[in-house]
Design goal:
This protein is of the alpha/beta class. It is built from 14 helices and 13 strands.
C-alpha cells in the first residue's frame, strides 16, 4: 500500500513539474509573439523629380538618420525622370499604398505630394522657398529648407573676385525654387555692386545655347539650386571652362563635379536633418503641424583645386583657411 501511495505521489509531482515547465514555455512563446507584434517595419515612400548627385545625397542623409535611430523601414524609392505627370502618379500610388510617411526631395516633388496626399505625414527637403511653393502651414507637411545663402555668397564672391561686375545665371523658368532664388539675387546683387545677366530655359538643349551666349557676356557664373542646371552641369562646365569663366555655386554638388567654389549647406545635411524629423514623427508620435519647417544654414566653403589651377585663379589666404578642397574631402 505504501509502495502504491509513493508511486501516486511521485506521479503527481512529475505531472506538476511537467505542467509547470509547459506553463513557462507558453509564457516564453507569448513573450516572443508579443515582441514580434511590437516590432514594426515602417513603409516609407521616397521620391525625387530627377536622378542626380545632389538629390541622391539628400536621400542618403535621410536614410542614414533613420538607420541610426534604430527604426526598421521598408523604402519605396522612386524617381519621376523629370516628368510632372509621372511625379503625380507616384504620389497617388504612395497614397493608395497607405505609406506611414512620405519623403519628398525638391520643390516640384513636394508640391505633387501636397496635392495628392492629405492624411500621411510628408517630410520635405531640398526646397528653396517652402512658403512661396505653398508648403508652409499645411498640416501634414514639415521638413527642411535649403534656402541659398545669397547675401553670404555675394559677400564671399566680392572677397574672392573684387573686380567682378557681371554675374551670369541660367535657370529653368518652370521651377518655382529657381525663380524665387533668382528674384532674391536680383534684389541683393545691386547693393553689392553686381549686375545680373540671366537666361531662362526649359530643357537641356536650351541650356547649351544659353551657356554659349552668356559665357561671352559675364565675368563669373553663379550656379543656383536648379534641377535642370544640376543635371546638365558637366556640359555647362565645359562651355564655361573653355571661355575661362569661373563657377561660384550654392551647393557642393557643383564644386564636387568641377566648379571652382561653393558655399552653402550640403544636401546630405539637409537630408539627415529631415530624417531626424521623420524619426520624431514615426517613433515619438509628433505631428508635422507641430514641427516648423527648418531652414538649415550650416555653411561650408569648398574649393576645387584642379579647376582653380586650370583657370589660374588666386584665392585669398583667409578664404583658403576656412575652406576644404574637394580633392581632400573625397579622400576621406
Amino acid at each position: 500500500m505504501k509502495t502504491i501511495m509513493r508511486g501516486v505521489l511521485l506521479f503527481g509531482m512529475l505531472g506538476g513539474m511537467l505542467l509547470s515547465c509547459g506553463g513557462n514555455g507558453n509564457k516564453k512563446e507569448k513573450k516572443v509573439e508579443k515582441t514580434q507584434v511590437e516590432k514594426k517595419v515602417y513603409k516609407i515612400g521616397i521620391s525625387q523629380i530627377i536622378d542626380h548627385p545632389a538629390l541622391n545625397s539628400a536621400k542618403q542623409g535621410f536614410k542614414d538618420a533613420l538607420i541610426k535611430s534604430g527604426i526598421e523601414s521598408e523604402f519605396d524609392d522612386r524617381t519621376a525622370n523629370g516628368e510632372i505627370p509621372t511625379q503625380t502618379l507616384i504620389m497617388q500610388q504612395f497614397s493608395a499604398d497607405k505609406k506611414d510617411l512620405v519623403y519628398t526631395i525638391t520643390t516640384p516633388t513636394s508640391q505633387a505630394a501636397k496635392n495628392q496626399i492629405k492624411d500621411i505625414p510628408i517630410v520635405i527637403a531640398a526646397v528653396t522657398d517652402p512658403k512661396g511653393a505653398g508648403l508652409e502651414g499645411v498640416e501634414n507637411i514639415t521638413g527642411t529648407s535649403g534656402a541659398a545663402p545669397i547675401n553670404e555668397n555675394l559677400e564671399l564672391m566680392k572677397q574672392v573676385f573684387p573686380k567682378v561686375k557681371k554675374i551670369g545665371i541660367i535657370y529653368n523658368s518652370s521651377e518655382q525654387n529657381s525663380v524665387s532664388e533668382l528674384n532674391n539675387l536680383k534684389k541683393l546683387a545691386p547693393e553689392k555692386g553686381f549686375q545680373i545677366l540671366e537666361k531662362a530655359i526649359t530643357n537641356g538643349t536650351e541650356l547649351v545655347a544659353a551657356a554659349n551666349i552668356i559665357s561671352k557676356q559675364v565675368d563669373i557664373y553663379y550656379a543656383i539650386q536648379d534641377n535642370t542646371i544640376s543635371s546638365y552641369f558637366p556640359t555647362l562646365l565645359d562651355i564655361l571652362n573653355n571661355a575661362g569663366i569661373p563657377v561660384f555655386a550654392t551647393s557642393d554638388v557643383y564644386s564636387d563635379r568641377g566648379g571652382l567654389i561653393s558655399q552653402g549647406t550640403t544636401d546630405y545635411d539637409l537630408g539627415y536633418r529631415a530624417g531626424e524629423i521623420a524619426v520624431e514623427i514615426l517613433k515619438n508620435g509628433k505631428k508635422p503641424a507641430n514641427i516648423p519647417i527648418e531652414t538649415i544654414k550650416n555653411l561650408k566653403i569648398e574649393i576645387n583645386r584642379k579647376n582653380m589651377e586650370m583657370l589660374k585663379i588666386k584665392i585669398p589666404e583667409e578664404i583658403l583657411k576656412k575652406a576644404v578642397f574637394t580633392e581632400d574631402k573625397n579622400k576621406k
